Amino acid sequence: MPEVRSALQSGYPAPGHYGPEHLQGVTLQEDLTRDLVQVTAWTTQRAAVAAALEETLSIAPPKSCGVATMKEMTTLFQVGPGRYWVSAPREARLMDKLSARIDSDLGAVTDLGHSRTTLRISGPAARDVLARGFAIDLDTTQFGPGAFAQTVVHHIGVMVHRPGNDEALFELLVLRTYALSFWEWLFDTAQSFGCTLEARKV
Length: 202
Fold this sequence. Notes:
Blueprint: E1 16-18, E2 26-31, E3 34-41, H1 46-57, E4 69-71, E5 74-80, E6 83-89, H2 94-101, E7 107-111, E8 116-122, H3 126-131, E9 148-153, E10 156-161, E11 169-175, H4 176-191, E12 195-197
Parallel strand pairs: 2-12
Antiparallel strand pairs: 1-12, 2-8, 3-6, 3-7, 4-5, 5-6, 8-11, 9-10, 10-11
């Protein structure tokens, strides 16, 4: 498996606390351990692909866009009609498993793992930091467990996902090409709230 390298090498400072010492608003971390695969069903094969995903992943596919289904460390997003993103630890070998089950008669399986940078933000001020640039409502009443949405920050496309019951934890998926620009905005914004930067997860 090819080595995964950070897109933030030149802009990821040493782990530690940044911003006012008396504030502990958020924690940031880059996560290099996740893989991402896209599955696109041909129009006439959507039901068959949904069944194949459930059989392979032991996860019921989402019934609509906007809320992912999850089991343990695997997450299944429906990002469009008959189009899914699957996120899991790299050791799960998603591409191999899904390609073996979903052939070209059913749809297309595409590795997106090297095209996205995954960031995690958590802490009591996480929603406040994201609200500085996100034009969506991340309040728990609107953005519950499993919720995800595509948004734009300074012309940079970002998927934001709430991966579980922790209302102060969000996962951000950014196109690798723009990851450093987005990271600079996120890190600069987080510092005013008191930011703990953790070593990247590898």
